[in-house]
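Task: sequence design from structure.
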């Protein structure tokens, strides 16, 4: 049982770490911890190694590359290979319903379709051709998105809710975030693909977790296999059901993935339901008149706090995700 205890302890630490990062992400505590950790590391690691690490990190997170796409497909392939090689066959022998066992494969096909669309589709690139039409889509709030702002890199006026992505080197309409896993920005025109991709990825991980759990429960508990023991080569007493380490490890991985993806999916659905983007949510708690030198205000002006003026009810907000305003018109102009 030592293996299971250590694995559950590791799983708990990962989940606690993720929750802590989520709580601290909008405070100065995380930045202080990162800064302090970087200072400590800088005194331990040689300068040449630090430069190499910075180059690698810059390549991975600040340039467009296919590293995370390949990692995504590799992990997905390994999980499905293990599921097919062991869990699927054992479950068939135990009389599991074939429809139940084939559900992860159906979700995989749908997921790969929307993963590809998220990777290759235009997120809403702002150009001279569609600049005027996109300026009419959203109202300027004069706090986070003031009028008459210009992106000097792209040489276009910035519509409300847009942002210049330094990784892709383009301005994106209704910019949400740049996702390294799809090597693309998430914006007005591909947010629906990303949402369905995330939904099916979460569902496939959860489905495999449920199938694997039911299989192990039936194999171990119902058959009393958990009581069976054997003596290994070192003379230690071991539990027989731990001779299926790959299935146990896969189960732990997909359970952890289900929690992480489920939490992020809930957050994404919350943003969609309230008509916010990740960029707006992250920046939304700040007072902006002191952080926007381009906005001229009297010295006595009180700090203005960003408020969401784009939410028009649940169904209207969701409709904006799946039928983005001005998408077809702007595409025709291109």
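Answer:
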């Amino acid at each position: 049982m030592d293996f299971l205890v250590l694995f559950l302890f590791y799983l708990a630490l990962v989940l606690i770490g993720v929750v802590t990062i989520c709580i601290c992400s909008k405070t100065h505590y995380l930045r202080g911890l990162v800064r302090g950790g970087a200072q400590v590391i800088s005194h331990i690691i040689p300068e040449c190694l630090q430069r190499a690490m910075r180059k690698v990190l810059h390549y991975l997170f600040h340039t467009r590359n296919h590293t995370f796409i390949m990692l995504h497909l590799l992990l997905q392939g390994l999980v499905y290979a293990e599921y097919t090689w062991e869990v699927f066959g054992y479950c068939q022998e135990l009389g599991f319903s074939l429809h139940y066992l084939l559900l992860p494969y159906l979700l995989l096909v749908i997921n790969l379709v929307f993963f590809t669309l998220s990777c290759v589709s235009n997120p809403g690139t702002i150009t001279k051709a569609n600049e005027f039409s996109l300026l009419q889509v959203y109202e300027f709030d004069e706090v986070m998105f003031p009028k008459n702002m210009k992106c000097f890199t792209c040489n276009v006026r910035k519509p409300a809710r847009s942002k210049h992505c330094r990784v892709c080197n383009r301005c994106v309409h209704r910019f949400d975030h740049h996702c390294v896993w799809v090597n693309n920005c998430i914006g007005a025109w591909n947010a629906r693909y990303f949402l369905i991709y995330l939904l099916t990825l979460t569902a496939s991980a959860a489905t495999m977790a449920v199938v694997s759990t039911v299989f192990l429960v039936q194999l171990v508990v119902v058959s009393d296999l958990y009581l069976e023991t054997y003596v290994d080569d070192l003379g230690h007493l071991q539990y027989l059901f731990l001779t299926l380490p790959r299935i146990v490890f896969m189960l732990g991985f997909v359970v952890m993935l289900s929690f992480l993806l489920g939490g992020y999916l809930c957050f994404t659905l919350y943003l969609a339901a309230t008509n916010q983007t990740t960029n707006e949510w992250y920046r939304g708690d700040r007072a902006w008149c002191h952080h926007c030198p381009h906005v001229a205000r009297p010295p006595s002006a009180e700090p203005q706090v960003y408020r969401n003026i784009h939410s028009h009810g649940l169904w209207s907000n969701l409709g904006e995700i799946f039928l983005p305003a001005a998408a077809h018109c702007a595409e025709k102009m291109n």
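The first helix runs from residue 2 to 24.
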